[in-house]
Amino acid sequence: MVQTRIIDLDRKIPGGASIEFLRVEKPVGKYSHAPFVLVRYSLAGEEQEYGLRLDLDKQVFLDHFDDNQEKEEVIQKAAPKIIEVLEDALSASR
Predict the structure, then answer these.
(1) Cα–Cα distance between 4 and 38 in angstroms, integer?
(2) Mean pLDDT, range 21-37, rounded to an integer
(3) What Cα–Cα distance (Å) separates residue 88 from each residue in 47, 66, 68?
(4) What is the DSSP letter of 57?
(5) Residue from 85, 82, 65, 81 nearest 73 by CA
(6) Which of 30, 31, 13 is nearest to 22 (CA)?
(7) Collapsed DSSP state (helix, strand, coil) of residue 2
(8) Quick one: which of 17, 27, 5, 14 has its CA closest to 70?
(9) Which of 31, 41, 21, 30 is nearest to 84 (CA)?
């Protein structure tokens, strides 16, 4: 099992379209340099079973809401802001 570091996003990232961003799970240890994180989120107040994979290098989500353009726009606009919060949290812990 991959060890992860949890970075809380509660109220730091604007959501919309019933999406709320909750936290980032970043691999640590031998996988710490992987350019991907998992973003946990809720829809209409319900945390979703699966998170959204975020590519840190390209600053885009790898998972999409193909059936809902409004939700898709919300997550793509949030990607750079989530990365900024993640980088700040990692810098503060060094």
Answers:
(1) 10
(2) 91
(3) 24, 31, 31
(4) T
(5) 65
(6) 13
(7) coil
(8) 17
(9) 21
| First and final C-alpha spacing in the chain | 25
Q: What is the secondary structure of 7-49 as a DSSP string?
A: EE-TTTS--BTTEEEEEEEEE-GGGTT-SEEEEEEEETTEE-S
Alpha-carbon distance 35 to 32, whole Å?
Answer: 8
Q: Are 82 and 54 a contacting pair, CB within 8 Å? A: yes
Residue with tokens 């709320």: 20
What is the bridge-based pairing of β-strands 46-47 and 52-55? unpaired
Side chain identity at residue 46, one-letter code: E
Range 25-48 average pLDDT = 92
Residue 80 tokens read as 């750079």
* Residue 6 backbone dihedrals phi, psi, to 5 degrees: -105, 125
Task: Report the predicted TM-score, pTM, of the whole model to 2 decimal places.
Answer: 0.92
